[in-house]
Amino acid sequence: MSPKLKNASILATGAMILSILAGAGGSGAAAESLSPVVINQEPTPQIIIQPVETDTVPAPKADSADVQLPVTEPRATNLAALVSAQPQPAELSRELTCLAGAVYFEAKSESLVGQLAVGRVVVARSKSGRFPESYCGVVYQPSQFSFVRGGGMPAIPKASRDWKEAVAIAQIAHAGTWQSPAEGALFFHAAYVSPGWRLKRLARIDNHVFYR
User: How far is CA 35 from each of CA 25, 26, 38, rounded to the nearest angstrom?
Assistant: First the structure.
């Protein structure tokens, strides 16, 4: 082969190689564009919501003293607590005065349970149909209560603790918010006497015996 032909052949071969290399590079870029692209992303930060601190002062909780409970249903775990929870009215109705008077004169020296038992007798009589239908009618019925004299009660020291306790017991007896151990009794007498009544004995409480 002549030198000219040899040089031409070398040039043609070189040009062919360059063309092949150029084509290969282009097809690689196109293939890469069809492949999934992986992007190094930073991890997604977690969002934590913190309470916002403000200068607002929380509203105070309601004081139990502000809660108005029904007078007839004060909450108590025992009779003494129930007595303490009763209001002391500035003026007492005539009927409650008669009921409290019976409690005071018949049982002021007794326990709270004994006082309540007496009060509930007056209430039970007024509902029985066998006695007057009012507390005052029951209390002032002739020959029933020995403390009644001349159709009235003796004077009562209204500022005394015994009277205030009797008023509280009268309210409880009237509302029926505490059950007496002698519930349903219509009669009672002092334990030191024996009248020989042919009645159903319910209980002895302090110095009184109760019957129905």
Answer: 16, 15, 9
Residue 161 CA: distances (Å) to CA of 30, 57, 166: 106, 44, 9
Say if residue 188 is exposed, middle or buried (CB neighbours under 10 Å; 0-12, 13-18, 19+): buried
Paired tokens of 74: 């004060």
**92-181 adopts what CATH topology?**
Arc Repressor Mutant, subunit A (1.10.10)
Which tokens in the block code for residue 108?
Answer: 């002021």
Any idea where the domains of the chain sit in the sequence? 92-181
pLDDT tens profile 97-141: 999 999 999 999 999 999 999 999 999 999 999 999 999 999 999
CA neighbor of 114 nearest in space, from 181, 164, 160, 168: 181
Q: Token pair for residue 106?
A: 């018949």
Name the 3-class secondary structure at 62.
coil
C-alpha gyration radius of the chain: 50
What are the residues whose beta carbons fall under 8 Å from the beta carbon of 73, sequence distance 6 or more?
A: 175, 177
Is 174 exposed, middle or buried, given 0-12, 13-18 or 19+ CB atoms closer than 10 A?
buried
Dist CA 84 CA 96 (whole Å): 18
CA angle 68, 174, 94 (to 5 degrees): 100
Q: What is the pTM of this model?
A: 0.64
